[in-house]
């Protein structure tokens, strides 16, 4: 820390005390320009390594303040980074075709569908995460966030790749809303004993363990539904990239 000898904006050497910052540090104000300043600033340049580490830790179940303490960055810098990363997460979720082709996932693909309860703001604001997973690749094909009615099931269907809508076989639990959305010939509602939805149910557990906003008794609550959805999309994109790396081609 190097003490300032003059105002960084106007060069004035005349200042007076002007209260304290939230951190308890003495604040000053220039007599000529009126600019607020501290005589011993602690601002540091954020390195590229800190940016990368912060972005990676957004994928783990760590609070924002915890990330700041671990990486050595401030919350005011971390919040815009989080928003930018969530907005940049693509809608296609980095889904890679199983055979390496440009459009075909599987000639006769199988997909598992399930729902995951969550909330934003407060527990009264319930919302459900509808997940469709490719059984062969373990990639999450699509997810909308909504209520637990047929409209959200239709939103999930619309987000699915066209080839899956036309050819894939779908395994779900016995929740009745699926029957009005999925073509009957390719819809197989099953019980848990059939073990045809165990992969998507397992990824539900992964989401709860890795995304702090989805932990059942959590203090990491999204105030905005857009941040809630963005955090899920950001994680699923990274999750699919790890699955894609294991695919041939």
Task: Describe, in plain words, how this protein is organized in 3D.
- The protein has 249 residues and is an alpha+beta fold.
- About 2% of the residues have low confidence.
- The radius of gyration is 24 Å and the shape is elongated.
- The protein is 33% helix and 18% strand.
- Strand 1 and strand 2 form a beta hairpin.
- The strands form two sheets. Strands 4, 5, 6, 7, 8 and 9 form a six-stranded mixed sheet that branches. Strands 1-2-3 form a three-stranded antiparallel sheet, with no helix packed on it.
Topology at a glance:
Blueprint: E1 15-20, E2 26-30, E3 36-37, H1 48-57, H2 64-71, H3 75-88, E4 110-119, E5 126-134, E6 140-142, E7 145-146, H4 150-159, H5 162-167, E8 169-172, E9 187-189, H6 198-210, H7 225-245
Parallel strand pairs: 4-8, 8-9
Antiparallel strand pairs: 1-2, 2-3, 4-5, 5-6, 5-7
Would you list the SSEs in sequence order as H and E? EEEHHHEEEEHHEEHH
Fraction of residues in helix: 25-40%
The total of beta strands comes to 9
Assign an overall shape. elongated
CATH homologous superfamily placement of the largest domain: Ribonuclease H-like superfamily/Ribonuclease H
Number of helices: 7
- The CATH architecture of the largest domain can be given as 2-Layer Sandwich
Largest sheet: number of strands, sense, barrel closure: 6 strands, mixed
Strand-residue proportion: 15-25%
- The CATH first-level class of the largest domain comes to Alpha Beta
Average pLDDT works out at 86
Q: Classify the fold: give the CATH topology of the largest domain.
A: Nucleotidyltransferase, domain 5
Poorly predicted regions? 102-107
- The whole-angstrom Rg is 24 Å
Tell me the span between the first and last alpha carbons.
Answer: 52 Å
